[in-house]
Amino acid sequence: MRWPVDVDIVSPDRIPQYVTGFAVALLLVVIVEIGVYAALGVEFVATGQFFVGVVTTVPAIAGIAFGGYWLRNADLSPSRYPRAVGWSVGGLVIFSLVNLALIVTMPTESWVNVVSWIRWAIVLGAGVGLLIGCLEGRAIERTLAAERASLRAEHLAEQREYLDYLNGILRHEVLNTATIINGYASLLREEAATTDQQRRWAEIVIDESEEMSTVIDDVRILLQSTDGEAQLEAVDLSRLLTDEVQKLEHKWGPVEVETSIPPEVSVRADHLVARVFGNLLSNAVEHNDAATPRISVAVDPGPETVRVEIADNGPGIPDSTLETLFERTQSHGSSHGIGLYLVRQLMTRYDGAVDVAETGPDGTTFAVELPAAAESQSTASSNAHSTSPP
Asked: Which pLDDT band holds residue 228 (cuts at 50, 70, 90)?
């Protein structure tokens, strides 16, 4: 049943208060009714019929008051409130009319009996109607929530299929093409180039193809990081950082690296976490204008989290860049590119954090915090104080 309610006059947000106020008013009516009857010495007050009427009325009033509280605190849209009240008013009217018909067909000798009967019918009808309205509102909300969840799941499945398709294209088509370009450019530089200018052009092609491969790989990692819920496990951070430092020296040539990495430090992550430190270390060298880049990697294992600081002797990061350093950017030529956006996304995946701890003309320090793996917390904490840096 739908009872018309002018929402322009009655704000839906205030309806729960009105319902509670209605319950209070009904309770006052019962109290006043009993007081008047007692003052007039009406014998009907002492009868079992009147007592049963009051006993059945009070729980219904309490139910109406609770209905107002429930509407205000339940996970129900305010747009459902008028309909619930409509059910209550409808129940009140219908139940009252039915009982008025009974009163007419079965007349009573006492006007007190008639008044009490009508009051009982009003309260019971309003209470039952409100109960039906609340149950209906909750059922509608649950149905809509289930439909929305189903649509979201369907959309996510389609999106996941599309992302898998893009991932396949990147991996098998674009990345392979970049590798071929890099290979032929290397052959041109070594065997076909006869002048310094030609060799320089070949080196530009090689550098750009390597940059393309890096960006493609980062995009693939981003696609993997959105592949459903992360399956996190203990990852040996000590070994991972040692491997990434070695890759850094192989890729960038002469780099001074100082490490303080205690053994057997594990974090709660997955295999993609290697890309976090790979990108941070590469950025520390790539954007470094010192004659000899110097990088330091320090691990501080704690009982709940593991903190890793990666510092360099580069020129620092401009203040204008700091605010958007980890955001997506359309161009990576003058920034830190997709790499740092990928780092932030992965840290969100692991419930970790990454930030610029310090930056200036003497260099930049990135701080990474990851949840410690439960099985390695105590071991890592003790090793941090008993093991000398490698």
From this structure: low
Give kind and range of the element (H or E) at residue 257: strand 256-260
The pLDDT, as a whole number, for residue 320 is: 83
Do 118 and 250 lie in a common domain?
A: no
**Residue range 314-319: mean pLDDT, rounded:** 89
Calculate mean pLDDT across residues 267-279. Answer: 89
Q: Of 228, 252, 272, which residue constitutes the final position of a domain?
A: 228
In whole angstroms, give the CA distance from residue 80 to residue 90: 15
Residue 132 vs residues 56, 86, 124, 353: alpha-carbon distances, Å = 18, 10, 12, 49
Of 176, 201, 228, which one is at a domain's C-terminal end? Answer: 228
Separation between Cα atoms, residue 37 and residue 120, nearest integer Å:
16
What CA–CA distance (Å, rounded) separates 172 from 185?
20
- Is residue 356 helix, strand or coil? strand
What are 257's strand-pairing partners? 295
Is the pTM value of this prediction over 0.70?
A: no
Q: Say yes or no: 64 and 94 in one domain.
A: yes
Answer yes or no: are the C-beta atoms of 144 and 137 closer than 8 Å.
Answer: no
Q: Which two tokens stand for residue 110?
A: 């006492």
Same domain, 187 and 277: no
Are 243 and 272 part of one and the same domain?
Answer: yes
Question: Does residue 240 share a domain with residue 169?
Answer: no
How many domains would you assign to the chain? 2
What pLDDT, on the 0 to 100 scale, is given for residue 372?
94
Domain CATH number, residue 310: 3.30.565.10
Residue 333, pLDDT > 70, answer: no
* Token pair for 175: 């990345």
Domain carrying residue 108 = 1-228
Question: What is the secondary structure of 260-309 as a DSSP string?
Answer: E--TT-EEEE-TTHHHHHHHHHHHHHHT--SSS-EEEEEEEE-SSEEEEE
pLDDT given for residue 388 in this prediction:
36
Q: Per-residue pLDDT tens for 80-130?
A: 888 888 899 999 999 889 988 888 888 776 777 888 888 888 999 999 999
Shared-domain flag, residues 199 and 239: no
Residues 361 and 198: their CA atoms lie apart, in Å, by: 36
